[in-house]
Please model this.
Amino acid sequence: MSYVDEVLARVQKQNADQPEFLQAVKEVLESLRVVIEADEEKYRKEALLERLTTPERQILFRVPWVDDKGQVQVNNAYRIQFNSAIGPYKGGLRFHPSVNLSIIKFLGFEQVFKNSLTGLPIGGGKGGSDFDPKGKSDREVMAFCQAFMTELYKYIGKDEDVPAGDIGVGGREIGFLYGQYKKITGLYEGVLTGKGLTYGGSLARTEATGYGLLYITNALLKDHGTSLEGKTVVVSGAGNVATYAIQKAQQLGAKVVTCSDSNGWIYDPDGIDVALLKEVKEVKRARLTEYKAARPSAEYHEGKGVWTVKCDVALPCATQNELGLDDAKALVANGVMAVCEGANMPTTLEATQYLQDNGVLFICGKASNAGGVATSALEMSQNSERLHWTFEEVDSKLQGIMENIYKNISEAAKKYGMEGNYVAGANIAGFLKVVNAMEAQGIV
Ligand code: NDP
Ligand code: 2IT
Model:
């Protein structure tokens, strides 16, 4: 049996109850086959793939906190420190009722390759909790964040592990988490990114994931002789990534006609009104029905449906496995040209294959949503030098990083005989740097 197949079987056996983690590992190892098989005995002897697919450390803890009625609540929490070969662990925290070990491990695993692709010195990690911030008061969210950090602070630090936001963790949560870290440790240090601008945050971090997604999408289209100008774009999600993806797509001359949340979706033939979307989601923390109420020309539909809308470019920006085979078929039937992932692993393996087989340009999240974590690394740099850079400075660095990622993943795909396969290109380019660092540092 080939070494890749041996490791796939081992990972499958050891993590049989973790479908998302298995999906992420399968995608990466299948892409790496060509690299591994060129020097199989060396990698097998080093147990390189076993080390790559096993987190360096997994921290599981409980979070007890008191709700507004005086009732004690208990949540499960996680921090997976996956790989520190190229830098301190770096990756977001997700607060959502669906969070479990499989989801945090898949996110941590993907983060290793994504962070490598940024070209910046950051290792991979991820954390979170099954706490649901929806419907909670600010005091309840604060109580939860303080209790969460009261345990997490033991394992993080500006040179060890630097968490940030993800689903359900935005500026409000990062503020509460940072305050508690400072209170317990007495340290005013860049231990979290995505901080507010008055206490060490970076300009453009809020916008970075969505903007970065559009910078790489634009680079992809340019390389294929076209641009975003005049294109119809379909976006899913209505959170941090979706909002700033929509904004940048519009700035680049595209028309974005959809967005969605977990209840339903909006079709707005005149183009999504970003100011209204921000008011509904960032200020009121309300549902998309309020967007429709304020904008009668838009349609609101319950459930899923954005992928049925005719478009040139589709940008999934909500959550994992939100774009399945039937959705891919609908997109192809409607003539989609490119799909670039804003979310982490939003496209199933079958749907990815179908899109690629049908000539759709496809960039996977670990390349196309890397602008968020890249800008987090720029926030870390600013914290270290105790300086603030201007919006333009950060934004132009972000643009350069995304264009560079596009160049690197295209070249890697070409070099290994898979021109145009940006999934393989991303996995291979991300892997090579991490492996080089792991080998140089010995068996640790
Ligand atoms: P937010 O919490 O700001 O927004 C998530 C959005 O997705 C909401 O509109 C949410 O709707 C919707 N959604 C629909 N179904 C689900 C579901 N089953 N689970 C969770 N959300 C759902 O998160 P972000 O915008 O920050 O993250 C979106 C995606 O982008 C995630 O995959 C995340 O991992 C990824 N990502 C985020 C980065 C960042 O910097 N924030 C960086 C790189 C990737 P509702 O409000 O109804 O739940
Ligand atoms: O998935 C991701 O890359 C993020 N949620 C951002 C991580 C970070 O450390 O900024």
Summary: The mean pLDDT is 98. The longest helix spans residues 391-415. DSSP finds 17 helices and 13 strands in the chain.
